Amino acid sequence: MCHPWLAAGVTCVLALVLVRELGPVVRGPAGGARAADTGLLGVRLRTWFRGWVEPVVDALLAAGLSANVVTALQLLASALCGLAFGAGWLFTAGWLLLSCGTLDVLDGGMARKRGAANPRGAFIDSVVDRYADGAVCAGLAVLYRDDWALWAVLAAFVGAFMVSYTRARAEGLGTECRVGLAQRPERYVLLAAGSIAGALGSHLACSPVPERVLLTASVCVVAVLANATALQRAVFVLRRLS
Question: pTM surpassing 0.85?
Fold first, then answer.
């Protein structure tokens, strides 16, 4: 059953919110960070988002929550996101994916603000992030189990893993590596946008085609960009170590 009028209303509201919130950010000053260090989203969007979640960080700390609790919630949200993808609930999965990314920012901000940032917490956060990525990709694999796009999902998972691994290995060798066009926020935004837009498009057109096409396109873009980012980091590290 499709709901074109409801989808049209949600689309208009989302469009108005995006224009209102992101318009000044896009038109604002460029800032001093390099594009390679801030990914496709850029320094302005990242700065805007961190400013937006700062009051949430303060509220969570005031409520007595710890960064580890938020990290656990991120893992739970990722598992639910994977289940939603596997069930074909793309609109729900898209919003859960955005929630996962937000929780990932929140736990780091809470740890730094409380002065509790340490190697142990960073290790836990990295492990949870990998399981979270795996849960999302597992859900997509279930969704595309009888489709050629399953290969794109596997390629995206390998690329995401290698993006993380190249940074971890570089830091183990004493070289900091934060460059890359498609880091974790970019991957989550692309997949979430494809999921949400695809679900709305299918309701507007009363056809499953937009849903499948837009999400599949997002997965393919993530697969290409994630592996390109891993190679970008590998070249960067090799130059530093030469």
Answer: yes
Cα–Cα distance between 15 and 20 in angstroms, integer? Answer: 9
Q: What is the tens place of the pLDDT at every residue in 16-50? A: 988 887 777 766 655 554 555 667 888 888 888 88
Give pLDDT tens digits for 178-214: 888 888 889 999 999 999 999 999 889 888 888 889 9
Q: What is the pLDDT of residue 177?
A: 86
Q: Cβ contacts of residue 127 below 8 Å, gap of 6+? A: none
- Opening angle at CA 182, ends 69 and 125, nearest 5: 20
Rama region for 34: left / alpha / beta (φ>0; ψ in -120 to 50; rest): beta
Residue 129 and residue 75 in contact, taking contact as beta carbons nearer than 8 Å: no
- In the chain, count of helices (H) and strands (E)? 9, 0
Question: Which residue type is seen at 90?
Answer: L
Ordered structural domains, the chain, with CATH: 39-241 (1.20.120.1760)
Cα–Cα nearest to 94, from 214, 6, 208: 214
Length, in residues, of the chain: 242
Specify whether the backbone of 151 is left (phi greater than 0), alpha (psi in -120 to 50) or beta.
Answer: alpha
